[in-house]
Amino acid sequence: MPTSDPQSLGPDVAVYLDAGNNEQNRHRSLQDIAAKIQSGSSSINDLIEGLGHSLVSDDETERGRAALLLGEVVTLASASVNAQSTQEHLVQFLSSRLADWPSVHGCLKGIAGLISSEQGPPASKLLCPVVKALLNVHITTLAQADRMLALTILLQALQSCGTLLVRSGTDVISGVIAAIDGEKDPRCLLLSFQLSQQVVKIYEASPSVPAAQESLQADYEELFDVVACYFPISFTPPPNNVHGITREDLAGALQTTVTCTTLFTPLFIPMLVEKLSSTLRQAKLDALSALAAAAEAYRPDAMQPHLSAIWHALRGELLAPAAPGLLPTDLTSTQQIASKAAECLSKTAKALSQQGDEALAMKVLEDEQICGDLLACLSGTKQQQSHDPARHVDAITQAVAAVTGSSQAACETACKRLLPKLAAAAAAASPSNSQHYSSSNPAGQTQQLALSTIFHLLKAANTLTATGLCHYDPLAATGSPVFQAVCAEPCAPADMSDTSDLSTGIDGSMDTDTASESVAVQDQSLQQLAQRASHGQGRAQPDSGGVEEDVRLLQLQVMTELVSLPVTLNCLSPQEWSSAVQQLLSCVARSSQSSQAVAQQAIVGLTRMAAAGHTDLLEEDALDALLEGATETSTAGRWQGALPLQALAALAAPASRLRGRIMSSIQQMLPAMLAASISNQHNQQMLIGVLEAVRHQLAPFAQSEEDVAAAISLDLLTGMRRLTMASQVASEDVAAACAQAVQAATAGCNTHQQALICQTACQQLTQCCQHLQSTTPLDPSHADPPSHPAQTDDSVQTHDAESIQYQVQGSDESRQVSTSSVDIPSGDGTLPRSHSTQQVTQLLAQSGLVSAAAVTALSSGVLPGDQMKPMLDCLIRLAMGTSQNGIQQAAMTAAAALVNKWPAESAESLSEGIASALSLLGLQAYTRQTAAAPMKDAAADGAQASSSNRQSPTAVSFYCLAWLIKGLSMAGHSASLQLVDIPLSYLSSHQAPASDQPLKASHGGMKAEQGSSHADSDCNDQTGKAGLVGTPVADEPLQHSVTTEQCLQASAATFELVPSAPDSILPLSREMSHVKVKLLWQQRFYTVALQQLEKLLTVRESAGSTDRQQPTDGTDERQHGPLLLALAYLLKGTPANLSREDMPRILGLLLTALDVLQLPGQCRDKGVLRGALQSVQAVMKEPAGRSKLEAEVTRLVATLTSLTSYQDADIRILGLQCLASVMELPYHLLHPLRKEVVAAVMLAVDDNMRRVRQQAVKCLGVWSNGL
After folding, report:
1. How far from chain centre, in Å, is Cα 123?
2. Whole-prediction pTM
3. Distance (Å, rounded) from C-alpha 647 to C-alpha 661?
4. Which residues contact 564 (CB under 8 A, 6 or more apart)?
5. CA atoms within 13 Å, Cβ hemisphere of 1199
6. Which residues contact 729 (CB under 8 A, 6 or more apart)?
């Protein structure tokens, strides 16, 4: 251990204390002193000895600087102060120096460093001198930083030794009051509030110390006054709120402080009541929030004397929205405060009730201005006296509902007193009691008012029951009247003054004799009610007015609360329960007679009924009706089962007991619905709706539902196959919906069930591909057609449609059909010879679509290893053998999933499968290209491909290849990186197209833009969304006979599709789709592809024109077009966080790409140019990128100015934005280019698109003003 050398600190101490030294030298000496103490060559005691004279010097500046040096060193080297004797010495010394005003700042720093040391704060007894010394310091007169230090030290010290100080007789509370009085800084104020809470805590923790209790009793009022003077908090954070303190933080801390002890109750509650009469909105809101918090914190006995005043103040706020003379401009604010008052009343009553005090709740329910006025408004006696009866009742309802949900006693009292009279009023106001209709007393208003109040009471009771705090039946002795009020017909529209401000449609009043005449309504037979409900007569016919609709919706809301009551309460009779189900069904089954809101509320009612435990009743009375309604059609044949299907999906929640029955029933319906969907648009809508429910609502399937999921998959597979047998072509939408449902269902099965699905799917896929091969044969030199082991039929050798029909039927008869499938008649139709080849292809491919979807969802290892290669060949043939986009996409996706899940131990078979796939795609000639010799070898390969007898590649070939590369890349197979050479080889071996005609798209995202005028292009940028998620492709079918231009576009698009973001081949989660996803697979592909593209472009650039300064007409640059297009696609598809670091390095290539791709015929996907421009923008934001741009500024500006006249408006706008951003570069580089830029932008100012003109004006202003 090194020996301490006191003399070693002398020079550094002298430098620090010398007033003539600058701040940098003083900081360096401070660091040296701290380093020596930390290393052990010197100690804190050595420093104190070295500072001895300076610490007591007559010069205040010197004393302050010496104390600051000591404090700074203690903070930096606090870990070296670990000996208790040293700590004690330092604490005593620093505490004693707090009495010296110039030394306070440094001593506070030193004490704070000791307390926050990594070794832990000093012992409690060592901190007592610190607290005593601080209490004698006039903290309020210190600077903000020192006040914050002092309050922090004081808080931490009191947390450690506060109880010791109080018990020793130290007057802590008076010192704290003096320290925080008048504080205004928000950071110090937060500490002051915490300090106040800590003081109360340590005093209340010493009840056996008389002196401490006497001190607390003597000073708590002063402490409250010091803290409560900030209520309500008025604070607006500054724009640069670096500390992040908000008004809510301060208000919350203040609220916690004033509720930390019941001693504050007689002071705080009256203050809150007074604040509720304030005209300041924020003061009222803070007071309501604090009142609820006080009720939860204070004891009931402390709150008891103030309950009357609290209720009086809250009642005024609750009834304020109905007060006469309220201006419309103040209505919204008043209603918000009333809502907060109701929330405060609920929390306060609940907090007191949980502690056994029901006084506040009973005050509300016994108040005649509440319950009395409510019944009076409903009876009509208050009609003339109330300024607005509807608002008045709404306000009263909020208050009653607030206390009803506070406790079981309050719930019982409210329901017994109000529900019978409310039910009578609502039932008596129905159209059956026509004697109550009058112009002065609209019954519709009364019915709304009563129903709305019933709804809020039942909702409060249900909420209380759900929390386990209540086991009371709110319908005890009033069930039938309430149920009759719900079943009564809605009133016809009436002339009402104002109902627009009530969310539940509350309005109106009724006659005073309603209650006495309600007996006649109650005597109505429940059996008749049930019959009327079951025949749809319990509801009005299609709505004739808004009030009738509001009443109907309110009735359903009340019905929802009724059926939500737990099954154990037995609140309704069996007939009433049955009638309730029929009422809800009547709104769902006939959607044409119910508005969307009414139908949705009925579905909510059925769902809540199931959640409450009434599943037996629903299974008995509702499921059959809903299942029948799901297939219901109108007289015109239109499907009307959307709402019943939605209700079934809602009832089939994952935890529902009804789920199994619903899923089984839907599964049994699917085969017949699939057969009925042929040539019937309405049946197609029905089937698609059911399949969407299977895919979205029922999936994912639980382990206990795997049998149903497997049955769904097999039914759809065999059903689609039987349609093919019967020469029936399903619509593309139906086939796509079937495929998606099969994917979701297959993914939810276990491996045994997936094996059965796999057998059926592979058989059908093999047969389909064989028939497609005979209809649209590939070249015989390709790989042999695959055959499934279970298939015994010979390959089809005829193109005759009738022969194909015969073989399809024969092969289907030999297939083993799952016993869970439903037998659908195959039909007697045959494929006549008049069928065109395209029709036969479409007919055969529809079953291949569903089969491919099933293969996509299989788990790894389900498909036997010896069948992997044949299935891959089948999928490639399916993609190449049809022109339907959906089928092509499904086949490509399935192929990607297949190679992704290829067993790792079968690497040799994977190589064979890829080789066979490349042969089928016509790409085997391009597998020898490498980056080492791109020009010569590429030309040789191109010549070999053109002279070969093999089929030339098509755009579809390259899109299939892209999916294969993506599937392999996600799994981390090295073969994916080898396959990247194929599109690079093709791009390198072809010159860019010489034609200026637009390229016709052959896949999603390759649509040609129409015209060259300055108009917004409607071309959909779908390629950017391509990924292993089954992204929809373009509307045009993929063409087999395509030009070289289209192949170049497709091969370049490979570099976007592969690294695109999604991590799943299916539109399901990664876990459900069973795909393999290696970490950093996107980065791996991007890195390899970028390196190869850079090498190829570098070689081609060096082999091109040697004089880059010579003017060119674009012909030489167009030779780089295919590879530059691939680079642009790669940057577009790769996540920005992966490519950001490479942007400065490839800036030159990026600018070349922008120059070339904007030439006619080079790029028809505006998304590619947009991505390249966005990459340039990203370079501008990076320091390294800006320095690179400075070297390329002339070329950059020339490129951007040319883009301001591009044919697509979005590109013109983005080019103008980039031009404006260029102004961040140095002035001397931009000034020579100003004239050129202004001339180009002036042309854009006259653009025929308004948004282009706007951006051009902004850009012109930047260049005009900035230079």
Report:
1. 50
2. 0.66
3. 14
4. 462, 608, 609, 611, 612
5. 25
6. 678, 723, 839, 842, 843, 846
